[in-house]
Amino acid sequence: MSNEKLRQLPSVDKLLGKGDVQALVAAYGHAQVVNALRATLDAVREKVQAGAEVPDAATLIARAGGFLQSRLAPTLHRVINATGVIIHTNLGRAPLSDAALAAMDAVARGYSTLEYDLAAGRRGHRTAHAEQSLCELTGAESALVVNNNAGAVLLALTAMAQGRGVVISRGQLVEIGGGFRVPDVMRASGAHLVEVGTTNRTHLRDYEQAIENDLDVSLILRAHHSNFRIVGFATEPSLAELVALGAKHGLPVLDDLGSGALLDTTAYGLAHEPTVQESVEAGADVICFSGDKLLGGPQAGIIVGQAKSVETLKFHPLARALRADKLCLAALQATLLHYLKGEAAEKVPVWRMIATPLKEIDQRAHRWQRALQKAGVQAEIVDGESTVGGGSLPGEALPTKLVALTPPHPDRLATALRAADPPAVARIEEDRLVLDPRTVSSKDEEELLAAIDSAIDSIDKEILQ
Length: 465
Prior knowledge:
The protein is α/β, with parallel strands linked by helices. It has helices at residues 2-6, 12-16, 19-28, 30-49, 57-72, 98-108, 131-138, 149-161, 182-189, 204-213, 239-249, 276-282, 307-314, 317-321, 326-340, 344-347, 349-355, 358-374, 410-418, 445-464; strands spanning 80-81, 85-87, 116-117, 122-123, 142-146, 165-169, 175-176, 180-181, 192-196, 217-223, 253-258, 286-290, 301-305, 380-389, 392-405, 424-425, 427-429, 432-435.
């Protein structure tokens, strides 16, 4: 019987003659549609052999269309971040300002001056882009942009300490998200680790003894603790003390600053995050930091410092492998301009979120509550906390107002929201799904509220079936 049923299945060629299939060909291309039809027919044959009925041609074509949509859909796309984590590494870290997006669009649409000097009419250097702004903002003598901060540190270590020793405190041998470890990068650079002090206490004399005992030391490294704090019985030398020690022994100091803060975080009710300007003022030879954390720009590794050190890095062979592309440089220039114009707190999304007053968040939360209740969704306003994230300001939080939903199955609601278009990501606390307005752009509010209404409706229908 199954063989008779199998003979009822149309061939790929026959299906290709259908009008609906031609629409799929126009959308996805002939080869992809043929593959989808074959995969669909193969799956149906297995079911028919197991006793299922033969679907009609329209059903087969619809299944092939679903297969194509699922298989060829982009995996990298926009999401609404309602988690309250401002620099959310898993969600792409810092969102870009409108000016940064416009700058990227301008250079992406055609040719650009990436490596061309218009005034001279000849080849230029991509290293020039953003350098002037970085030097003006930080007080550094020279600057270089590479693809990310790990690349910046790798380049600096390779150029300044390959085959030689680098002194670092045991309390700074950090691991950040994704398994990135400072010791691993040091080994990859060809430098060897000279650990000093203990996890919680490292003194200047520990560095001094290591330098005197290991004649092959060529660099002192300070690494920002990034995503953790050592509290209690703890101490470590200041960057200025390490610079003075380096000068005494003729050794440069590399400061892996990480987060890239250019503004004073204490002005926004947060603990002090070391700024790039402070590292430059302390005299570090080379300072490395991220472009997409507290700086609020695109993914980039930014190197600033003394010209004698940074200029050498620009011409190291590894610099080409790690160089930033035109989109990154365009977005970074636009982001830095916000700082130069004194408008970063209003125009750079990360800082705008940090600076948003609690009163404004409370007003938005109540507006959401009213809209949801009008749609038949019960919501409660509760006190909560937003976090900066991105390995910055560990343990610090900003007060916020959360819109809390208490469905029978909060996990199912969270899953349904992630399946929305656009997807929305929230968090679950105490068996409630909570949404933090601080990290949701005002232009995303309507889509978020519609997604919640639709998700709850779909879950209710599923329960009733």
